[in-house]
Amino acid sequence: MKIALGADHGGFELKEAIKTFLTDKGFDVTDMGPSTKDSVDYNDYAIKVAEGVRDGKFDRGILLCGTGIGMSIMANKIKGIRAALVHDVFTAEATRLHNDSNVLAMGGRVIGVDLALKIVDVWVNTEFSGVERHERRVNKINNYWE
Ligand code: RB5
């Protein structure tokens, strides 16, 4: 599975920890930046990662900022992206089973590294359920644009 990572200064350390974790597990990880902890706009990295997922260069994306909120809002503006803001293991699994989320957003100022890595582990290893009602609802998300 090809996974793109992106962050801002608030999520930089979490990005680094997730990069090591996923690489050690054998995932094909691309770090879309930033490469330092300097202050940056989360928007720019959300767009890079989300567009890469939309274009099929990556199977999934993981975005980290201080809260995960700006990243998730920005990523969800890109057509084809279903970004989920997650800070617990239950919703990490649920958003894969029910929403087929293709981007995971978390806040480096919200949770610790240990919990974040558990969330990542569950999220990358859970397949969409394929249950008809969930598929119907995901299709409604995918097909609604105003
Ligand atoms: C940056 O200070 C902070 O606003 C950002 O990391 C994120 O939390 C935005 O949603």
Q: What would the principal axes of the Cα set say about the shape?
A: globular
CATH class: Alpha Beta
Q: Which small compounds were modeled alongside the protein?
A: D-ribose
How many distinct helices? 6
Write down the overall mean pLDDT. 98
Low-pLDDT residue spans: none
Through-space gap between termini: 32 Å
Q: Determine Rg (CA atoms, Å).
A: 14 Å
Largest sheet: 5 strands, parallel
Looking at CATH, the homologous superfamily is Sugar-phosphate isomerase, RpiB/LacA/LacB
Could you say how many structural domains there are in total? 1
What oligomeric arrangement do these chains adopt?
Answer: single chain
By CATH, the architecture is named 3-Layer(aba) Sandwich
What does this structure look like?
Helices cover 47% and strands 16% of the residues. Helix 1 (12-24) crosses helix 5, helix 2 packs across helix 3 (69-75) and helix 4 packs parallel to helix 5. Helix 4 (89-99) links the parallel strand 4 and strand 5 (103-107). It contains six helices and five strands; from the N terminus they run βαβαβαβαβαα. It is of the alpha/beta class.
Question: Which secondary structure elements does this structure contain, and how are they paired or packed?
Answer:
Elements: E1 2-7, H1 12-24, E2 28-31, H2 42-54, E3 60-65, H3 69-75, E4 83-85, H4 89-99, E5 103-107, H5 113-125, H6 132-143
Parallel strand pairs: 1-2, 1-3, 3-5, 4-5
Residues 8, 10, 42, 65-67, 69-70 line the site of D-ribose.
